[in-house]
Design a protein that fits this description.
The protein is α/β, with parallel strands linked by helices. It has a single domain, classed as Rossmann fold (3-Layer(aba) Sandwich). It is built from 8 helices and 6 strands; from the N terminus they run βαβααβααβααβαβ. Strands 2-3-1-4-5-6 form a 6-stranded parallel beta sheet, sandwiched between helices. Helix 4 packs across helix 7. The N and C termini lie far apart (48 Å).
Length: 233
């Protein structure tokens, strides 16, 4: 099962929001410190969406995970998978337009990277993937995923700027391993879910970028690059 791509085990259930913007479900994806929460907040304002933020402040495993990753990697990933699944299902069952700060699929990206770098036991990773696969049977896919393409070096800069104590042990090597997995995953998942890829550094104003993405979503059907903002349009 470890050789199987994450995207390939996403059950091909209907995509949310296929009927229009009234049930729109957008996921925002990207590295640690990419700016997902900032963009999610701006999009929620522009498109009248409910926003579901990543469970960070109340994550009781996070400090232990960064202190002793091999020991706590499995427990942390299971905790996050459970919380993200709860959010995912709440969005679907409420049936209202929403945006999620980090998708449930990205948790599997982290788990794969942890396994490949020896930070998660292969047996634990197989158990994790089995649970993820069973959960995917009950998940409707997002209407679209917005991928914030931020390179590992810039991600590290932003992590240092926000100075969260639990993140002090993150290395550029760790972020590079994650970035490589994100690239593979986004190419794969774009065959199943529309992906709008955004070079975050091209945009100086988050409100302007939210408007660009709103327009791009209307005809997004595959991996596409959101164009730079043109104030004259």
């Amino acid at each position: 099962m470890e050789k199987q791509s994450i995207a390939s085990i996403v059950t091909p259930r209907p995509t949310a929001g296929q009927g229009g913007l009234d049930t729109l479900f957008i996921g925002v994806a990207g590295l640690i410190g990419a700016g997902k929460s900032t963009l999610a907040t701006a999009l929620a304002k522009h498109m009248e969406l409910e926003v579901y933020y990543e469970p960070v402040e109340d994550n009781e495993y996070l400090a232990d995970f960064y202190r002793d990753t091999p020991r706590y990697s499995f427990a942390t990933q299971i905790y996050l998978l459970n919380r993200r699944f709860q959010q995912h299902q709440e969005i679907i069952w409420r049936g209202r337009p929403a945006i999620q700060d980090r998708t449930i699929y990205e948790d599997a990206i982290f788990a794969k990277m942890l396994s490949q770098t020896g930070l998660m036991d292969p047996r634990d990773y197989r158990t994790y993937l089995g649970l993820f696969k069973h959960m995917s049977n009950f998940m409707c896919r997002p209407s679209a995923i917005i991928y914030l393409d931020v390179k590992p070096e810039r991600s590290m800069e932003r992590i240092r700027q926000r100075s969260r104590g639990v993140e002090s042990g993150i290395s550029v090597g760790y972020l590079q391993a994650l970035y490589d997995e994100y690239e593979l995953f986004m190419q794969d998942i774009s065959r199943r879910i529309p992906v709008i890829r955004v070079d975050w550094d091209q945009f100086r104003d988050v409100d302007e970028m939210a408007e660009v993405i709103r327009r791009e979503y209307m005809d997004a059907s595959f991996m596409r690059q959101a164009p730079a903002w043109d104030a004259s349009t």
